[in-house]
Design goal:
- This protein is 45% helix and 15% strand.
- With 387 residues, it is of the alpha/beta class.
- It starts with a strand and ends with a helix.
- The chain binds NADPH dihydro-nicotinamide-adenine-dinucleotide phosphate (NDP) and magnesium ion (MG).
- The site of NADPH dihydro-nicotinamide-adenine-dinucleotide phosphate has 28 residues, from helix 1, helix 6 and helix 10.
- The site of magnesium ion has 4 residues, from helix 7.
- InterPro entries: DXP_reductoisomerase (IPR003821), DXP_reductoisomerase_C (IPR013644), DXP_reductoisomerase_N (IPR013512), DXPR_C (IPR026877), DXPR_C_sf (IPR036169), NAD(P)-bd_dom_sf (IPR036291).
- This is 1-deoxy-D-xylulose 5-phosphate reductoisomerase.
- Belongs to the DXR family.
- Keywords: Isomerase, Isoprene biosynthesis, Magnesium, Manganese, Metal-binding, NADP, Oxidoreductase.
Length: 387
């Protein structure tokens, strides 16, 4: 069998580096075709020297000379600027694209990869949140598979394996509850980014860690699940499960529930997505039932953690509503990380953006671009007035 050649968009991040660990562990199965990063030129160079991809892209063009000089003696093409991402994903020398960059920036390269017939291992959930309908239609038209990397969606995907056309009654997405589980608004009003960045169970990039603390991550995952598994909002439940051992569940029409379990480790869903339908023998630590005498479950608090309720509303509203939510959230999270707004103001920025930005019922790609830009501008102005 020839090796699967992988393009990793965002190879220097949390998902990107873990994907390279997986590739390194199975050199007879995987090879690296493309690596990309935004600013972390040093790590990108180190990865390129080790994995020898055909192409690397550094998004921030001011690092192009540095990367290009460091790799000049290797048979590696170097590009600067994110516009190169859309062509590198179309290359004949790759088989699958792992979208491991953060945020809206994932949308356009994913569209190009699908149009070029590349299967997608999707970590970048924002792409499906912003334009789920467009992406899933494109994937169907181009006969492309989208394999989920997000642990909850991988769990559901694994539970569905072997079920043929058996309809899903509902899915149950599990949520850790984040570092502020059980806290009230009066407490959340003054939490710092240092507190918010301390996730109890997972070590991830800054944006998704804040999203986990506000429960926006679960909201984005509800929307992601809608598009991946063709469900209605009422078929998607969220339950808080602080131990993060059950990664999500599917309930079928006979009432039977299947769960996928294991210790939290993103390498498992990454390798399942990259090598589907095969499972790879791993040495990851195994779950021990005796070490966890109680797995607990509780309802999410949608009044305190407003972002989860906002995401459900955007899903019901369809059109460009989730695109507005995503853009406002990206700006608000960035502002929170810069100590420019408080934790609770993240939801305020999103709610005001939804009220302000025009609704488009059947958005085209250009409508998404315009909605994203208009929302970012509005959210930034709002934050400037506040501080
Ligand atoms: P990180 O912040 O750790 O990494 C992001 C990666 O994307 C880096 O390689 C970064 O480059 C690159 N990047 C940043 N901005 C841009 C841009 N504008 N254009 C292109 N590339 C960019 O994020 P994570 O790995 O945590 O998350 C990546 C995606 O996976 C997110 O969508 C997240 O929601 C999703 N995900 C992550 C999980 C996790 O465990 N981390 C779990 C489930 C989903 P540089 O390093 O140079 O800045
Ligand atoms: Mg997840």
């Amino acid at each position: 069998m020839s090796k699967k050649r992988i393009a990793i968009l965002g190879s220097t991040g949390s998902i990107g580096t873990q994907a390279l660990d997986v590739i390194e562990a199975y050199p007879e199965i995987f090879s690296v075709g493309v690596l990309t990063a935004q600013n972390n030129a040093d790590l990108l160079i180190e990865q390129a020297v080790k994995f020898l991809p055909k192409v690397v892209v550094i998004g921030n063009e001011s690092f192009y000379d540095k990367v290009s000089a460091a790799l000049s003696s290797f048979p590696i093409k170097v590009y600067g600027g994110n516009s190169a991402l859309v062509s590198v994903v179309e290359s004949d020398s790759i088989d699958i694209v792992l979208t491991a960059m953060v945020g809206y920036a994932g949308l356009l390269p994913t569209i190009h990869a699908i149009k070029a017939g590349k299967n997608i291992a999707l970590a970048n959930k924002e792409t499906l949140v912003v334009a789920g309908e467009l992406i899933t239609n494109l994937a169907k038209e181009n006969n492309v598979s989208i394999y989920p990397v997000d642990s909850e969606h991988s769990a559901i995907f694994q539970c569905l394996t072997g079920e043929g056309n058996n309809p899903i009654e509902k899915i149950i997405l599990t949520a850790s509850g984040g570092p502020f589980r059980g806290k009230e608004s009066s407490f959340l009003a003054s939490v710092t980014k240092q507190q918010a960045l301390k996730h109890p169970n997972w070590s991830m990039g800054a944006k998704i860690t804040i999203d986990s603390a506000t429960l926006m991550n679960k909201g984005l995952e509800v929307i992601e699940a809608k598009w991946l598994f063709d469900l209605s909002a009422s078929q998607i439940d969220v339950i808080v499960h602080p131990q993060s051992i059950i990664h999500s569940m599917v309930q079928f029409e006979d009432g039977s529930i299947k769960a996928q379990m294991g210790l939290p480790d993103m390498k498992l869903p990454i390798q399942y997505a990259l090598h589907y339908p095969y499972r790879l023998k791993s040495s990851f630590p195994r779950f021990d039932f005796a070490a966890y005498p109680s797995l607990t479950f509780e309802k999410p608090d949608l009044e305190t953690f407003r972002n989860l309720a906002i995401a459900y509303q955007a899903l019901e509203k369809r059109g460009n509503a989730a695109c507005i939510v995503n853009a406002a959230n990206e700006i608000a999270v960035e502002a929170f990380l810069q100590d420019r707004i408080g934790f609770l103001e993240i939801s305020d920025v999103i709610i005001e953006s939804i009220a302000k930005i025009g609704y488009v019922e059947n958005p085209t790609y250009l409508d998404y671009v315009n909605t994203n830009e208009a929302t970012r501008r509005f959210a930034l102005e709002m934050i400037q007035v506040k501080v």
